[in-house]
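chain below, 165 aa
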Amino acid sequence: MAARRPDNSMHARDDDAPVIPRRRVQAAADMDITPMIDITFLLLIFFIVSSTMQNQTAVELPKARHGAGVSHRTAVVVTLAERETPGDALVYLADGCVGNPLPDDPDIQRQKIVEAVQRGVHSNKKAVLIKAAKGVKHREVSRVSAAASEVEGISGLHLGVFEVD
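prediction:
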């Protein structure tokens, strides 16, 4: 028989019942990210469509820490340009491809370069600036710099590279 409770009701005691463990209720782990992906693509399309394409603008480069620029007023300028056909570089005694190039004979070129540098030294141009196109071989630049360095009185030999458009 069941024991009486203090409220005089006849119910079975809860202490005698077997303990059944409760299962924990798990939250739904699935999350639908489709709307987030849709918004991401919409934003991407919006920014692509609304952006304006600009031509390359001039970039102001920082000044060099080592070295200084060489002016054509204080230096004898020799320009080496590429040939369209295979062969040695075209040599100009000017800033750029101005006038006629020197003859192709290396001895005549050496003599003309020495004379131009000597004239520059006499007119107080103490430096030599050799400008070479991007594709000019190093041996050509070396040959011209060797000819320019034969002259007494030059204070510096500067090299520059330019790209032909």
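The domain at 75-162 is CATH 3.30.420.80 (Nucleotidyltransferase; domain 5). The longest helix spans residues 34-50.
thats it, cya
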